[in-house]
């Protein structure tokens, strides 16, 4: 950000400045932020007007132009830790531009402070839960549709595990038995959404910051390469990278692989590091570090010394080269040690700790459900699909055509064997293609997988997925099945209105408001153009 100069990301994150200094920073940045917000909102309004013209019938377009169009604009994990002065300032300016009376094909848009703000991880998870169960449940979360009887209400809805780039959300309906520990924060589905036909159903939503695949991958790589078991003479033997893969730089930046030479280069800019958000959190100037010793202990446990500058925090001491060994069992053990069951919370993971959980292992030990679990988010779903598509499950794939996996011993055995075979697949260089991974289908169909900066982490993604599954399997109540799909598709009805809709919190953010009909009607009326338009404009 030009108004703050170099190192602006860390400036926005750290809570070290007195209020008057923050006010001065905000004042100096307002012209830049206003210009940015104006350009962004103008482009969004044009896109929204075009979309409305395509999606609505002519009478519906007239209706929308008369009443105004509500806009929800939320940010998630990537901005949660930024300073309040920046976040509040940006969203205020964005909202001003959004509510400005500017004609876009005669559509007028409106919002309010609740509809344009950052959302917490728990909200993000709850929104994903609402969207998934509304779309896949045939409108089951519609206020006018009664819940089906015959079983515990918690089993009528699916749990959600949403793994993004920076955080993971775990959301589950809470069964009536066994009773949950009293310190666990639960949401009443009826109270939160106005779904009064579910009066006795509670939902738990927990967000683990830094457990998204990008942030978690950076933490895993740094700590694996600091483990004496894998670091020798400056060479890090990474069990989560495929055999034959070599990286001449010890960095958690995104790798790129030349098709001509097969050479691996890594972006070593600290700002591009997958450790960036964790390392910025672990700064001596961050009040969360200086006021809470547990946070400092967590940072130091992960090799992120708060007293060092950012460039040194993301560095890999004593490491000069990374080579892949493709050992799934050791990779799984590292994922467990570093990410899923660490002795101290992952740096920056204050939201989950605040509701009673320092790690994933604790969550599944204390809270369990027999409802189906739906995995959403591209990384883990695509990793499992890759094992399936490239033939690692042989003639007995565990995924059916609906993306479902049954929860039984055969599933775990097949997944573990497929993961072991994938991780130890050899890497070859082919001129013009770069580095390729030989797959089981390669023998018959000449199907090779070209490696790039994203799929070299497939082994650790599968290890993370396997860890989630095994922790759920060891819980008191076990899910009946797992579902791996990122988009809705009705096989029986190709014309279904929801076909192609991506699961996620975006739709849920809208449902969360509009399902509460009375309060939403009031909000829409008081915020819409019919209410807040100046009298002169109404004439």
From TrEMBL:
GO molecular function: ATP binding; hydrolase activity
UniProt xrefs under Gene3D superfamilies: 3.30.420.530, 3.30.420.540
Active site: 124
Keyword Nucleotide-binding: yes
Keyword Disulfide bond: no
Keywords in alphabetical order: ATP-binding, Hydrolase, Nucleotide-binding
InterPro entries: GDA1_CD39_NTPase (IPR000407)
Residues that bind ATP: 165-169
Pfam families: GDA1_CD39
Residues forming coiled coils: none
PANTHER family given in the database record: ADENOSINE/GUANOSINE DIPHOSPHATASE
Family that this chain belongs to: Belongs to the GDA1/CD39 NTPase family.
Protein name: Gda1 cd39 (Nucleoside phosphatase) family protein
UniProt organism field: Cystoisospora suis
């Amino acid at each position: 950000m030009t108004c703050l100069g170099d190192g602006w990301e860390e400036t926005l994150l750290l809570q070290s400045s007195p209020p008057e200094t923050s006010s001065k920073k905000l004042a100096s940045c307002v012209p830049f932020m206003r210009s940015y917000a104006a350009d962004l909102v103008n482009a969004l309004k044009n896109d929204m007007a075009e979309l409305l013209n395509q999606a609505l019938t002519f009478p519906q377009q007239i209706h929308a132009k008369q009443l105004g169009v509500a806009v929800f604009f939320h940010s998630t994990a990537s901005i949660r830790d930024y300073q309040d002065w920046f976040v509040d300032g940006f969203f205020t300016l964005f909202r001003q531009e959004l509510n400005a009376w500017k004609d876009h094909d005669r559509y007028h848009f409106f919002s309010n402070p609740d509809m344009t703000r950052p959302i917490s991880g728990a909200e993000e998870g709850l929104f994903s839960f609402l969207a998934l169960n509304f779309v896949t449940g045939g409108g089951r979360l519609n206020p006018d549709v009664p819940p089906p009887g015959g079983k515990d209400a918690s089993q009528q809805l699916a749990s959600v595990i949403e793994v993004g780039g920076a955080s993971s959300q775990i959301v589950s309906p809470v069964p009536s038995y066994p009773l949950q520990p009293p310190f666990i924060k639960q949401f009443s589905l009826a109270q939160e959404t106005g779904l009064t036909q579910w009066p006795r159903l509670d939902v738990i939503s927990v967000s683990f910051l830094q457990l998204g695949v990008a942030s978690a991958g950076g933490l895993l790589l740094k700590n694996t390469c600091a483990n004496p078991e894998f670091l020798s003479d400056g060479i890090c033997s990474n069990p989560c990278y495929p055999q034959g893969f070599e990286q001449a730089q010890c960095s958690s930046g995104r790798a790129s692989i030349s098709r001509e030479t097969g050479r691996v280069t890594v972006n070593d800019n600290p700002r591009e590091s997958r450790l960036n958000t964790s390392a910025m959190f672990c700064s001596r100037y961050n009040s969360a570090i200086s006021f809470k010793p547990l946070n400092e202990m967590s940072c130091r446990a992960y090799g992120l010394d708060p007293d060092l500058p950012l460039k040194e925090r993301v560095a890999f001491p004593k490491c000069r080269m990374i080579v892949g060994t493709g050992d799934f069992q050791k990779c799984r053990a590292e994922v467990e040690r570093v990410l899923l069951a660490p002795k101290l919370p992952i740096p920056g993971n204050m939201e989950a700790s605040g509701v009673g959980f320092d790690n994933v292992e604790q969550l599944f030990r204390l809270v369990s459900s027999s409802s189906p679990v739906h995995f959403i988010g591209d990384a883990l779903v695509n990793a499992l699909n890759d094992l399936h598509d490239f033939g690692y499950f042989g003639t007995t794939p565990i995924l059916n055509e609906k993306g479902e996996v049954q929860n039984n011993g055969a599933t775990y055995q097949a997944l573990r064997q497929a993961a072991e075979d994938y991780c130890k697949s050899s890497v070859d260089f082919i001129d013009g293609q770069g580095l390729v991974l030989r797959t089981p289908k390669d023998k018959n169909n000449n199907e090779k997988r070209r490696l790039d900066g994203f799929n070299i982490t497939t082994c650790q993604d599968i290890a993370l997925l396997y860890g989630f599954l095994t922790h759920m399997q060891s819980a008191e109540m076990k899910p009946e099945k797992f579902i791996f799909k990122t988009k809705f598709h009705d096989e029986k009805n190709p014309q279904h209105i929801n076909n192609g809709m991506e699961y996620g919190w975006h739709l849920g953010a809208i449902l969360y408001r509009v399902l509460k009909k009375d309060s939403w009607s009031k909000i829409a009326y008081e915020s819409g153009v019919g209410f807040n338009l100046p009298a002169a404009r109404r004439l």
